[in-house]
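Sequence in, structure out.
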Amino acid sequence: VQLQASGGGLVQVGGSLRLSCAASGRTVSNSGMGWFRQVQQKEREFVAGIGYSPGRTFYAESVKGRFTISRDNAKNTVYLQMDSLKPEDTAVYYCAVTPSDGPSMRRPAMYDYWGQGTQVTVSS
C-alpha cells in the first residue's frame, strides 16, 4: 500500500485545514486508518483513527471537538478536517494503515504502512 498525504500548509490561529490521504496498491476499505503527528525531537503522537466498521472513530483528547476524521472508501481516501487550529497543532502529519478496528489504533506499532507526511504550521 502506498499512501500520499496532502493538504498541509500555513494557517493562522483559529483557521482550518483539511488533510487528505489517498491510498493506492490495494483497497483500504477493510482496514483502519489513522493520523499521527510529530514534532522534531518528540515521539510520533496519535491524532485520530477511523475503523473499517461504521462509527468507529477515535481521537486524542487534545483534538477532540476540533478535528474530524472521515473516509471515502470509493476513493480509497481518508480525511482529517482540522478546525480551530492552535499553535501547538504545528507538526508533520502522517497517515497510516492498520488492520485494527478498535482502541489499539492509538498505538503507532499497530500500523503497517505510513505516508510521507505533510507539514502543518499554525502561526500566531
